[in-house]
Amino acid sequence: MKTTIGVIAPHDSLQQIMYVAKEFETITFVPYSYEQLPEVSDILTHHRYEVDQWFFSGVLNYTYAIENELITENEGAYPPLHGASFFGILLEAQLASNHVYRRVGIDTIESEEFEKILSYYNLEDLSYYNHPFKSGQSSDDLVNYHTQLFEEGKTEVVITSIKYVYQKLKDKGIPVFRVTPSYLSIKLIIQFLEERAQTNLYRNSQVAVIGFRINMDPDHLEEQYYSFKTKYQELEVRRELYSIAEKTNGSVMQMGDGLFFIFTTRGELSHESEADLFTLIQDIRLQTNLRAKVSIGFGETVLQAEQHVRIGFRHVKEYEEPVILVVDDDQSISLKQQKEQIDYQTTDVGQAWKEKLKDANLSPGVVSKILSYVKHYGREQFSSQDLSRWLKSTERNGRRILSEMERVGIVEQAGETQSGERGRPRKVFQFLPF
């Protein structure tokens, strides 16, 4: 599937990034420009799940997004600024003013990086004052820092990567130039984001097996096995596991006395399904005084995932609070503990679509959920059967929803597909651009 990358940058930086993006014909780029940093919050709140990865123009807007929990570190990246970029701008400054600058103020680059460049090119006579980027720093503090150094005669020119600082210093009449990431730096980050997006898609398609085992009392094992009470309890557990399997589009198999497996894929597992497992562990302990253990295994094949579940069971110890042991495809083991609150989000459909939905017999929440599933599964096209599975409803209801979305101009028919069963081919649809 074609990778989609969202680009967040001030207008001038956005043009530069999109120029490099033309080289990547297999990637769809969605540009988002902003003037003030808080606008980044609005962009990510409304469009976070519409792309596979986010490209940030620099460390400032990237750090803002991370610190405000608008994205995770696995959802985006920014091109680093290297010493060579600063010297390129310094040369430009000298040519523009016909003057050799020997005292320079800089920011947002590590001093160690700058020292390496000075030493490599024998430029130790160049004096500089650096203010490396710090999390939570104010742009106004940088403006005051550079202004004070210039007024004291310690610097002749300022090179900054932050547009706000550049504009403020320019308004004060201080010689200032703005540095931006190099062509190569932008290109490398785009390649990195594409590889990460493809890796995430591959991981979501991995086999996942949820192992659920109830530990019987060994002193009364035979008595428990033949009791009707135990059978009823087992049926209740099976019912709850079927509910979890339905939410994860999986299937349940009983592998032995008190041992159940749910076969699904990695992408189907969510905070919600984990919460259900924790609740089931607690309910069994309260109702029967028995302890249940849960092990989740991932793998490229069903056999490998099942083996990892059994490895997990061998490592599960007795804990007072419910835990889930997870064995990844590389056999690394991690322990998950229950959280008091589980948070998850769907996609905001945007104001334009909300206006269209006013004339439809549909809620924005339903469309938002469908859009989230489309992005989650990497599906550009989908049918009424897909909708019935995602929304846990009938195929007839899926056809009705598609018909309404097509009528108001949210989706369009993209072709037909043969299901392999008797009857007419099914229509497949795709979302129109926002």
Describe this structure in words.
By secondary structure, the protein is an alpha/beta fold. The protein has 16 helices and 16 strands. It has 4 domains: 3-78 and 184-201, Rossmann fold (3-Layer(aba) Sandwich), CATH 3.40.50; 83-180, PrpR receptor domain-like (Rossmann fold, 3-Layer(aba) Sandwich), CATH 3.40.50.10660; 206-337, Reverse transcriptase/Diguanylate cyclase domain (Alpha-Beta Plaits, 2-Layer Sandwich); 351-431, Winged helix-like DNA-binding domain superfamily/Winged helix DNA-binding domain (Arc Repressor Mutant, subunit A, Orthogonal Bundle). The strands form 4 sheets. It has a 6-stranded mixed β-sheet. It has a 4-stranded parallel β-sheet with strand order 2-1-3-4. The chain has a 4-stranded parallel β-sheet with strand order 6-5-7-8, with helices on both faces. Strand 5 (103-107), helix 5 (111-120) and strand 6 (127-131) form a beta-alpha-beta unit. It comes from Halobacillus alkaliphilus. This is Transcriptional regulator.
Helix and strand arrangement:
Layout (H helix, E strand, L loop, with lengths): L2 E7 L1 H11 L5 E7 L5 H9 L5 E4 L2 H9 L8 E2 L5 H15 L5 E5 L3 H10 L6 E5 L7 H13 L5 E4 L2 H9 L4 E3 L4 H22 L2 E9 L5 H5 L2 H20 L3 E6 L2 E7 L5 H18 L2 E9 L2 H14 L7 E5 L5 E5 L13 H7 L6 H14 L6 H7 L4 H13 L3 E7 L8 E6 L3
Parallel strand pairs: 1-2, 1-3, 3-4, 5-6, 5-7, 7-8, 12-13
Antiparallel strand pairs: 9-11, 9-12, 10-11, 13-14, 15-16
Helix pairs in contact: 1-8, 6-7, 10-11, 15-16
